Amino acid sequence: MILLQANQIARQFGAETLFENIQLEVSSQARIGLVGRNGAGKSTLLKIIAGIEEPDKGTITKTKNVTLGYLAQDTGLDSTKTVWEEMLEAFSDVRQIEKRMHELEIQISQTPPEDKDYETVLAQYDRLQQEFIERNGYGYENEMRAVLHGFQFDESFYDKPTHSLSGGQKTRLALAKKLLQSPDLLILDEPTNHLDIETLNWLEGYLQNYRGALLIVSHDRYFLDKIVNEIYEISRSKMQHFKGNYSRYLELKEQQLASQWKAYEKQQAEISKLEDFVAKNIVRASTTKRAQSRRKQLEKMERIDRPEGKEKSANFLFHIAKSSGNIVFQLENGAIGYNDHVVSEPINLDIKRQEAIALVGPNGIGKSTLLKSIIGEIPLIKGEERFGTNVTIGYYDQGQEELNHNKTILAELWDEHPTTPEVDIRRVLGSFLFSGEDVDKSISQLSGGEKARVSLAKLAMEQKTF
């Protein structure tokens, strides 16, 4: 059964077309991945499909009574309600049925069997109980516990107000609530952000068994490989549909490009042959009619456009202004946390020049807290730290909070490096796929991925050693 169709959808920003002629179809139990480079319009299209934004052209049609659930990128729950209360809201309809059943139970116990309303009340109770069973009424609290456990929320979190949680925990809680709501079509924008490996594995298993349809934007190709069985790609303002998971999509894309080049080159050879015949024979009386025939053939030929090939990828390096000493950073017997509440200890680090270190661990263990403690944003609770000679720190904030949303891309870099020639600023931005008029876009207009590239471009300009 078709749940939703997008027909000839288009979105413009001023004179620029973000995408147009978008056709997309979602059937029940579909597993769809939406892919494309940063700024292609993936998140915008999801918002249009979810009914949050209106398209400039085209229509979205849905089956009657279909339920949609949409979770935006990095959305987090933030209220005075407890974790348990927030999750209970996902079952508000079921709980209303439960409440009405209790009322009827009391009414039945107080009504004699010979009363004229007794059978009517009993029949109403039977109908409600059947619906209650079908909607997992006797098991929804166990389902809540299972999903919360999957997202690393044990019973110690149940009575905590959501506003007291970390940013990553709020994001995971929002995703947990959306899963528990179990809409017919679940639309997820980058759901794997802020998930550790254990939670990601749990989410993959849960979504593989999800009873409804899924429409997912993700840059995690391994996640898409395990979840989706069809891909819609937005590229150069157009959309293409491919059957299979992400790896199969890449194979089909390569085959398609090879086929396009073969057809193009074959036609170019034919054109060259015809043009050569016309040039040599058009002025000769004996062959002019054949030359004119070839010319008409050329004029009527439907030309194949030159294949555009793959879109450009970012290509950059991080240079340093001045080399540091061999010792970069040392921490002995460190403890990190907030307001004397220790999150992790003991922490011992000995980082040397040119080492590449990955910091891994479960959600809430203190990875971001440690980084912020190293850069001095959050004080260490205890421990002795030491930076080496000529060590300068560059920090990438995953929330891009350091970006000024009122500035253009060019101004965001140039204002911090006013003595650098504009051509050099543009060269750096070009390596991060911002060229031409792109650099005049406002930061506020950018997608999450584009903002990430601006932050990385700023980091590259700083030429830090650590």
TrEMBL record:
Give the EC class as a word: hydrolase
Q: Describe the location of the ABC transporter domain by residue ranges.
A: 4-261
EC number, as in UniProt: 3.6.1.15, 3.6.1.3
**Record SUPFAM superfamilies:** P-loop containing nucleoside triphosphate hydrolases (SSF52540)
- Is Kinase one of the keywords UniProt gives this record? no
Q: Which domain of life is it from?
A: Bacteria
Pfam families recorded: ABC_tran (PF00005), ABC_tran_Xtn (PF12848)
Q: Which InterPro entries match?
A: AAA+_ATPase, ABC_tran_Xtn, ABC_transporter-like_ATP-bd, ABCF_ATPase, P-loop_NTPase
GO molecular function annotation: ATP binding; ATP hydrolysis activity
| UniProt entry keywords in alphabetical sequence | ATP-binding, Hydrolase, Nucleotide-binding
Keyword Transit peptide applies: no
PANTHER family given for it?
ABC TRANSPORTER ATP-BINDING SUBUNIT, DRUG RESISTANCE ABC TRANSPORTER,ATP-BINDING PROTEIN
Name of this protein: ATP-binding component of an ABC superfamily transporter
Organism classification, top ranks? Bacteria, Bacillati, Bacillota, Bacilli, Lactobacillales
